[in-house]
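[Automated response] Your request has been received and processed.

Submitted sequence:
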Amino acid sequence: VQLVESGGGAVQPGGSLRVSCAGSNLDDYAIGWFRQAPGKEREVVSAIRTDDYSSDYIKFYDDSVKGRFAISADSGKNTVSLEMNGLQPEDTAIYYCAASAVWPLSIGHVEYWGKGTSVTVSS
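Generated structure:
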């Protein structure tokens, strides 16, 4: 599975950005967004997978982004997006898309990684 991120960029504190991840057969995996800030470990920010018993999606958010970030999936376009609102300097990082067959998503179970896209929040 090849994952390709798009979006990201630079924004002032309080601003919004959207990052997207495109790939094939994404519904077969749990798809997550990780981020890695300079000098820090890579951490999971949000993840999404299809519900085994309905047409809904199950979503996860790290406490640091709850209420500010929203993950969504468009199976028809094979795209998973992360809408990021209320961005703060501590959100500055490289954001990576990841695919895993295991839920909850953890870095040790990621099977495929995108190359990452940069998000910078600064005044």
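Summary generated for your ticket: The two ends are 37 Å apart (CA to CA). The chain is about 0% helix and 50% strand.
If you did not submit this request, please reply to this message.
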